[in-house]
Specification:
Elements: H1 8-21, E1 25-29, H2 31-34, H3 55-58, H4 61-66, H5 68-84, H6 89-99, E2 105-108, H7 114-117, E3 123-125, E4 128-135, E5 141-143, H8 147-154, E6 167-171, H9 180-192, E7 195-199, H10 211-217, E8 221-226, E9 238-241, H11 244-256
Parallel strand pairs: 1-2, 1-7, 2-3, 7-8, 8-9
Antiparallel strand pairs: 4-5, 4-6
Helix pairs in contact: 1-11, 5-8, 6-11, 9-10
The chain binds zinc ion (ZN).
Zinc ion binds at residues 135, 137-138, 140, 160, 162-163, 165.
Length: 262
């Protein structure tokens, strides 16, 4: 394992070498990739989203079913941040790696769709996305464009145009199962990659927190880019301690340096 005692540039060069040698690279990203875009981590105490409600109570399936008004009141500041947010340098850096063939899959715990808006193509949103909503009555799916804006501006709870039932954002709430098809794709990607980049997540939320272990157990190397330690640091090949929005662009530049464009 390479430690943070080595200069960051050395560790970035080392990671770049691992990426260039790898045949299949998977990135697992979390809230830390979106915080530079101004999106608070709703699980963190300082985000302001804990002041009135506990997320695991209000952002739960049972609250949505019994008191959707309360759910939508709680969601309002988070949805407002997400609507205004733009992809940051970390999103663009990963998209560039993907475009140049050095990254095959991005698995994200984020629901803000910023990887896609940043240009990434193969993104597995294992906690769902705010980009779409589904009617709880007739299961029609709607793009959130226009609907989310109306909700943010007027606090209008989104309703189905056909059956008038309430629309539920396609995000995975507490008490809900992860989307099975996407989850299985994520597991498969982890088991078949030979390098995993963990970026901007402290790996505290199960079951996604165990994906790096799946990768390790199938022989992959592991690189962790995060502000704070994670439980798999002891098994990582390289740990890059710091801001993903600074480190990932440096890393991408290093990987693409010397790449001859066709
Ligand atoms: Zn409907």
């Amino acid at each position: 394992m390479s430690t943070t005692l080595e200069p960051l540039n050395t560790l970035i060069t080392q990671t770049s070498g691992l990426i260039r040698q790898a045949k299949c690279v998977v990135a697992l990203t979390g809230a830390g990739v979106s915080t530079p875009s101004g999106i608070p981590d709703f699980r963190s105490q300082g985000s302001g989203l804990w002041t009135k409600y506990l997320p695991m109570e209000v952002a739960s399936l049972s609250t949505f079913r019994t008191n959707p008004e309360l759910f939508y009141t709680w969601l309002h500041p988070l949805a407002s941040h997400m609507l205004l947010a733009k992809p940051n340098a970390a999103h663009h850096a990963l998209a560039d790696l993907e475009h140049e063939g050095f990254l095959q899959t991005i698995i994200t715990q984020n629901i803000d769709a910023l990887h896609r808006r940043g240009g990434a193509r193969h993104v597995l949103e294992i906690h769902g996305t705010l980009n779409t909503l589904t009617c709880v009555g007739c299961f029609r799916q709607y793009a959130s464009d226009g609907i989310i804006e109306d909700y943010i501006d007027n606090m209008t709870i989104p309703r189905c145009r056909v059956c008038n039932a309430i629309l539920k954002p396609d995000v995975i709430l507490y008490e809900e199962q992860l989307p099975m098809r996407i989850w299985l794709q994520a597991e498969e990607a982890c088991k078949t990659c030979d390098l995993m980049l963990v970026a901007g997540t402290s790996l505290e939320v199960m079951p996604s927190a165990r994906l790096p272990v799946d990768a390790l157990e199938h022989g992959a190397k592991l690189v962790i880019i995060n502000h704070t330690p994670t439980y798999v640091d002891v098994r990582a090949d390289v740990i890059l301690r710091g801001d993903v929005a600074q480190i990932l662009p440096q890393l991408t530049s290093e990987v693409l340096r010397g790449t001859i464009r066709q």
